[in-house]
């Protein structure tokens, strides 16, 4: 149903030219102040798209996002102390 996607942080020289990155994947965010863009691409084609993006004249460097590898389910081994502080 949903394809596995990975995020790419693309550092650019020209923010206006960064709008053209939309044809390579799903353009999520462009920072005008820090000159980077966040692009989501299918994980199966990430290497191929990265090689194509590095050929563009306005792309400085590309970093892969590790957001999908971070654990997002948390559990607490500490007992719940809220019952002691009720009125």
What is this structure, in a nutshell?
Keywords: Cytoplasm. The chain is 10% helix and 31% strand. The chain is mainly beta.
Task: Write structural notes for this entry.
Keywords: Cytoplasm. It holds the Pfam family DUF2129. InterPro entries: DUF2129. This is YlbG family protein. By secondary structure, the protein is mainly beta. It has a single domain, classed as 2-Layer Sandwich (Alpha-Beta Plaits). It is built from 1 helix and 4 strands, in the order E-E-E-H-E. A 4-stranded antiparallel β-sheet has the order 2-3-1-4, with helices on one face. A hairpin with a 4-residue loop joins strand 2 (26-31) and strand 3 (36-42). The protein is elongated, with a radius of gyration of 19 Å. The model has no long low-confidence stretch (mean pLDDT 90).
Describe the biggest sheet? 4 strands, antiparallel
Instruction: Give the radius of gyration.
Output: 19 Å
Tell me the CATH topology. Answer: Alpha-Beta Plaits
CATH class label: Alpha Beta
Q: How many individual domains?
A: 1
Q: Could you state the order of secondary-structure elements as H and E?
A: EEEHE
Characteristic terms for this protein:
87 residues, mainly beta, 31% strand
List strands and helices in order, with pairings:
Layout: E1 5-12, E2 26-31, E3 36-42, H1 46-54, E4 59-64
Antiparallel strand pairs: 1-3, 1-4, 2-3
